[in-house]
Amino acid sequence: MARSSPKTLSAPDISRLIEMAWEDRTPFDAIEQSFGLSESQVIQLMRHELKRASFELWRKRVTGRSTKHVALRSKLVDRAYCPTQYKNK
User: Which is more confidently placed, 14 or 7?
Assistant: First the structure.
């Protein structure tokens, strides 16, 4: 997927991206593959879309979290999400 800009994402895409960013097992690489945004662009989008306290809580939560970075993950973790987590439309 081509690189996106937070400005070109639809409201449902932004909502899904925020949901993925909050999920512990979804790495930034999966977000980049789905939406074309780098980790720094995701951080920028989260800063803009969330309330300040929510953003700070999220940053504290994901900073250094090995499951958010593929390179830091255990080799035993071979998927980004639980097969039952996605809702049927």
Answer: 14
Backbone angles phi, psi at 27, to 5 degrees: -75, 160
Q: Residues near 48 by Cβ (< 8 Å), separated by ≥ 6?
A: 6
What average pLDDT does the segment 70-84 reach? 57
> What pLDDT is recorded for position 81?
55
Distances (CA, A) of 76 to 52, 67, 68, 79: 35, 11, 15, 9
Query: In the 8-state DSSP scheme, what is residue 35?
Result: H
Instruction: Give the span between the Cα atoms of 88 and 40, in whole angstroms.
Output: 30
> In angstroms, how far apart are the furthest CA atoms of the chain?
36
Here the tokens at position 26 are 């979804």
In the numeric block, the tokens 């999400």 are attached to: 81
- CA-wise closest residue to 21 among 11, 7, 49: 49
pTM value is 0.70
